[in-house]
Amino acid sequence: MNLEQLQLVFQSAVNALPALLKATPITLGFALAAMLLGLPLGFLVALSRLSRFGALRRVSSVFVSFIRGTPLLVQIFMVYYGLPSLGLTLSPIAGGVIALTLNAAAYLSETIRAAILSIGRGQREAGTSLGLTDSQVMRLIVLPQAARVALPSLSNTLIGLVKDTSLVSVITVVELLRSAQLEIARTFEPFGPYLAAALIYWVISSALELVQHRLERRYARGF
């Protein structure tokens, strides 16, 4: 690649930036929505997998196994293109959020379940001996400690979601990747817009990693 080609790539990346930056909030919105909706759903799935009721454990286990065992792209297609055949038609945004939320919930549930199980049985028994109910033991003793254990994995899931939002471009959502593709269709210069999109993903991920590390240090100090 000669100097003239490098200049062309740089210029095309710079020219694509306004459109890509305009689409960046959509990418962040998808990731945050999936995380905020996936966390409570993942928590419920984790509790179901720890339940004493066998049927509840089996259903939640099948859900987690199916989501983790199939590609996210297939899940997006099932939600957006498959559900209309069952009488439920969704907008691209709703379909993308639902698919990402279900995917995030399955992975988050495993993180939460492992964090809960990492808290020793002795601490639960100590809380019970003090007269606390099971729900109080979970809320006051188990969950605060489990949150510290789960924090790195939860943060990694959010970072992964930011990158996974690129897949909703296949259902016509104009997020970061789709915006880059539209710029390429307009200019016929592929490398610059893709490079600019990659740099934006990198900056977002690096910023989230920085926040993650600061939160981990704060937890290590016990607030």
TrEMBL record:
One annotated GO molecular function: transmembrane transporter activity
Cellular location(s): Cell membrane
Membrane-spanning segments: 26-47, 59-83, 89-108
Any one biological process term the GO annotation gives: amino acid transport
Record's keyword terms, sorted: Amino-acid transport, Cell membrane, Membrane, Transmembrane, Transmembrane helix, Transport
Domain of life the protein comes from: Bacteria
Coiled coil spans: none
InterPro entries for this protein: AA_ABC_transptr_permease_3TM, ArtM/GltK/GlnP/TcyL/YhdX-like, MetI-like, MetI-like_sf
Gene3D superfamilies named among the record's database cross-references: MetI-like
Family annotation (Pfam families): BPD_transp_1
Main location: membrane
A single GO cellular-component term on record: ATP-binding cassette (ABC) transporter complex
Residue stretches making up the ABC transmembrane type-1 domain: 24-212
Bilayer topology: Multi-pass membrane protein
Keyword hit for Membrane: yes
PANTHER family: L-CYSTINE TRANSPORT SYSTEM PERMEASE PROTEIN TCYL (PTHR30614:SF0), MEMBRANE COMPONENT OF AMINO ACID ABC TRANSPORTER (PTHR30614)
Stated family: Belongs to the binding-protein-dependent transport system permease family.
Protein name in UniProt: ABC transporter permease
